[in-house]
Every structure is written in C-alpha cells, then in structure tokens.
Amino acid sequence: MHATESSSSPTAATLAAWLRLQQTPGVGLVTAHLLLEQFGTPAAIFQASHAQLAQVIKLSQASALLAPQASQSDALAAQLDAVQAWRAQPGNLLLTLDHPGYPELLRQTAGAPLMLYIKGDASLLTRTAVAVVGSRNASVMGMQNAERMAQALSEAGVTIVSGLALGIDAAAHVGGLAGAGGTVAVIGTGADRIYPARNAALAHRIAEHGCIVSEYPLGTPPMRDNFPRRNRIISGLARAVLVVEAAARSGSLITAALAVAQNRDVYAMPGSVHSTLSKGCHRLIREGAKLVETAQDVLSELKMGMAAVTTGSHFDDSFVDVVLDAMGDAPILAETLAVHLQQSAADLQGQLLALELAGLLERLPGGWLQRLRP
Q: Would you say 186 and 235 are in contact if contact means Cβ atoms under 8 Å apart?
C-alpha cells in the first residue's frame, strides 16, 4: 500500500489558502517564500494588513494578495473541490511545503514548490536518490547504458529520479523499476495528465510501483516553459545528477547547472569524440563533472560501496572465482549460469550485481552476461 497523508494533512480552509497563494497574479515562488518566511503560513499572509505586506513585498503585490476574491471565489472553490476529490483517490497525495512528509532535501532548495502532487509511493522521496538524465533523441547504446546504470543503482538501494521524457529518461525509469530503489518521475504537466503519450504505459507502471510528482495544478497541459522549470525538482530530490548522454545544447545541461546551484554533485558518462550526443557530457567533464563509467563509480562517490548491495546475498571472495569460472569467456544467460551453479536465478542476482559493480562482468542485451577480464 502506498503512503497516504497523515493526520497533519491540510484542512480544506488551509488548502484553499495555499492554492490562493500559488495563483495570486504577480506573486511568484520567490515572493511566496519571502512571505512565508515572514508570516509563517498562507492563512497568516492573507490576514495581514496591506502595510504589513508592503514591508516585505511590492505595493502592487500586496494589493493583489488582498484584492477582493469575489470574482475568483468560484474558480478557487471548483479547483479546491477537484483537488480534494483527486487526493481522495487511492495512491494520490498532496504535500504542502510545511507538511512533515515534504522531502527535506527539496525543501532546502531555493524555489522549492509550494505544493507537490504525488501519485504512488511517497516514501521514495525521502530515500537516497540519483537523478539520471540525458537526451530525448538518444542512441541505442545510450539508452542501454542508462537502463543498466539505473538498474544497478536501484538494486543497490538508490532511488532513480528522472523526467519521464523519451530517450534516456524513459530508460532510466525502466532500470529503476527493476531494483529495490525504485524510481521517481517528475513531470511538467498536472499529475492527472500523462505526457508524452508514448510513455503512458511506463507512467502507469511508475504510479503503481514508483512515484510520480508534479508541482503544477491539476489539469495543467504540456507547456514548453514548464519542463525546464521542473528540472530543479529532479535535481533537488537527488544527492547527485548523472548525465548519461547529451548533445551540446541538451536540456539535461540545465538540470546539471541547477544541480551545481543546489550544491549537488554532477556525474557524466563519456562517449565517442565523434558523437554529437557525447559533446554535452564531455563539456560537463571539462567543467568539473565527475567522469563515471560504472555504477560502482557512482556508489563510491555516494559512499555506498559493494557492501551496500551484497548485504544478505551471502557474497564472499571465494565465490567470485566460482562464478567467473562457470561463466567462461562466452556470453551466457543468467538462467544457464544458475543451472551450472545449482542455484536459483533469483538467489544468484546479488552475486552477479556485485561482480558487475566490480567491473568483472557486463550485462548484454537479451539478458546475456559477459565476463570481463582485467
């Protein structure tokens, strides 16, 4: 059962105040944060006098906040009803900035969203996470790298955060779903919308087994400017951002820049010097991003070494040679290897992951494994 709102969930009146603050013309996130720092809650903001507000914000903004709501009351009431109905549905959750369940790492960033609309397992928002991003028009190899890297990290307990776009994002989510860490999709539409349509099936899987997050009001359609803005949430939820494949002008570089501003680490995977889809990653590396080639590189940076992924898998050094000898030098299926070792394929996965993270084997398309020799 996915996490649900606690007894500290906002009342209808409190939620109406948050919605009103979010939608007041001329009052953006920066101004809203200033007001909340000064007055504490949206309700207190709307109870303040014009003179009190004007000490913190512009006169025009103070006037907008205290303007008669008659013309907007019907629209606000309708939206409040829609939000209440939406969050009453199983798996749906709304967190305001002051809610104890709001992810702390994101709360500490500049421009943290006033509200988060969540579908799925909200507990994923509090776990150690890495954002995996890259090109929408990704190469086959880039998507394979993203999926394998995300799966290895997820199997090590790291939650994968990405943006549900085509290409690298989608591959990262698929990999994240394959491990215990799970995946979080931060979208640029309302939480009741799915975009792009080609990722509809993936979005349903994430809502069921992961988590979908949006800061935008219900019903918000795809709008060009919303997608770069949501990138700050992708990086804000994560301890680090990994760019797998990106062209020189890729939107992933925006996420990397936001990560730096939020004091997050940035990792990049190198590629061919002849590939236009590698130029963005190479630029990041030149500018100081950490070059990574394997999931173990990322785990080491996060101080989550091999012990984090072998707990409970009965892994020991003596088993390394047994598995590698059984693999031989030709590609082999995990199921075939399990038969040779007289183990179930499920029981073997922990050892295979540890060997992969150690750079001793590689996963190939179709479920094949290939031993790597030093």
A: no
Burial degree of 7 (CB within 10 A; 0-12, 13-18, 19+): exposed
CATH classification code of 122-301: 3.40.50.450
Q: Do 34 and 111 form a contact (C-beta atoms < 8 A)?
A: no
Segment 103-132, tens digit of pLDDT: 999 999 988 999 999 999 999 999 999 999
DSSP string for residues in 6-66: -TTPPPHHHHHHHHHHHHSTT--HHHHHHHHHHHSSHHHHHHS-HHHHHTTS-HHHHHHHH
**Highest CATH level, class, for 312-371:** mainly alpha
- Domain at 12-86: CATH code: 1.10.150.20
In whole angstroms, what is the distance from residue 226 CA to residue 110 CA? Answer: 17
User: Cis peptide leading into 196, omega within 30 of 0?
Assistant: yes
Domain boundaries, the chain: 12-86, 122-301, 312-371
Q: What percent of the chain shows pLDDT beyond 70? A: 88
Dihedrals φ, ψ of 320, to 5°? Answer: -60, -50
SS3 call for 300? helix
Question: What average pLDDT does the segment 191-210 reach?
Answer: 96
Name the phi and psi angles at 96, rounded to 5. Answer: -90, 165
Burial classification of residue 39, based on how many CB atoms lie within 10 Å of its CB (0-12 exposed, 13-18 middle, 19 or more buried): middle
Q: How far is CA 235 from CA 132, 191, 212, 290, in A?
A: 9, 19, 15, 16
DSSP H or E stretch at residue 167: none
Residue 177 has pLDDT above 80, yes or no: yes
CA 45 – CA 25 distance, rounded (Å): 15
